[in-house]
Amino acid sequence: EKNNFDHFMLKEIYEQPSAITDTYRGRLQVDAGLIRMAGVDDNLERFLNAKRIVIVACGTSWHAGLVAEYIFEDLARIPVEVEYASEFRYRNPIINSDDVVIAISQSGETADTMAAIKLAKEKGAFVFGVCNVVGSSISRETHAGAYTHAGPEIGVASTKAFTTQITVLTLIALKLAKAKGTISNSDFHMHLRELETIPGKVELALESNDHIKKVADKYKDARNCLYLGRGFNFPVALEGALKLKEISYIHAEGYPAAEMKHGPIALIDEEMPVVVIATRKGHYEKVVSNIQEIKSRQGKIIGIVTEGDTSVRDLADYVIEVPDTIEALTPLLTTIPLQLLSYHIAVMLGKNVDQPRNLAKSVTVE
Ligand code: F6R
């Protein structure tokens, strides 16, 4: 049921505060200062002895894997590789019995991800699933796992599945960081407390909806769009571009902001909207100078900024604010306006938001 929402996608975007809360319920124990996840606890030695973690997934779930790469490496100091399941399965990958493979899938039915899991198992790896659909094929095929508990996702464009996947992966990274001693006690507690504030901050980010609608109206006729971000927010730029492509059919590309000068900057002119994730934490000054480069070539700038920001506001055509948080958790907030922007553009263009052409909710063929 869509309740009072026009589309499942919008409903699911608005469900994110409660979905994220459901994801960490019973797991995140702030007062006790611990994270409980049976699938990790029962296999802790496998995780702690892993020389590396290989993440396999497709589409939006692959983007969640990329965010996780930054989080795992930063917090738990475990090398991470993120692979498209469809490439991994066909390229004779080097997998050892001391590797941990994490498969991420909302539906738990994606054929390529399933094949990658079977291959990793044959090679002796321990395979951990992060699925949303309980009892799905992937959740049964993996050795252990953690559900996202986001509730049913009906809209073909993945929204709450993405933010809850990141939440689960953050919990795992923090848990391993604590067990490995790669995070200080005070930093660990600070992360737990901050994670607990995220649903409320997502709620605040959603309050920009009317403003985002105006931005959407301004750029709905664009033929192309660029999305830029750095660090933890580089994968969010990829995800923002995918959301726009799949539901509005506008061509969009995501890039790490610093890669601009190696080619894509040639595309910039007064017709080109560029969405730049420029939150105050993480390479802020460098992103501001990337914005200056776009502006001097007449590009139109939509900045996703931390509330109260003034530097980007002075340069950008529009800014959309999100609440402040620690850098590792910014993707959970910066994703929200990008989802809403794509949604409104697609609706204004009269597209079938919940069932875009050529796409299916679960891709059970390769
Ligand atoms: C994008 C989208 C797809 C899926 C991909 C993987 O919005 O929905 O890119 O993310 O098909 O699906 P799952 O996560 O079910 O394996």
TrEMBL record:
Record-listed E.C. numbers: 2.6.1.16
Compartment(s) of residence: Cytoplasm
Chain ranges of the SIS domain: 43-182, 215-356
Record key words, sorted: Aminotransferase, Cytoplasm, Glutamine amidotransferase, Repeat, Transferase
Active site: 361 (for fru-6p isomerization activity)
Record carries keyword Cytoplasm: yes
The protein's enzyme class: transferase
Catalytic activity: D-fructose 6-phosphate + L-glutamine = D-glucosamine 6-phosphate + L-glutamate
Gene Ontology molecular functions: glutamine-fructose-6-phosphate transaminase (isomerizing) activity
Domain of life from the UniProt record: Bacteria
Main location, first listed in the record: cytoplasm
Role description: Catalyzes the first step in hexosamine metabolism, converting fructose-6P into glucosamine-6P using glutamine as a nitrogen source.
Subunit text: Homodimer.
Name this protein carries in UniProt: Glutamine--fructose-6-phosphate aminotransferase [isomerizing]
Lineage: Bacteria, Pseudomonadati, Bacteroidota, Flavobacteriia, Flavobacteriales
Gene name for this UniProt entry: glmS
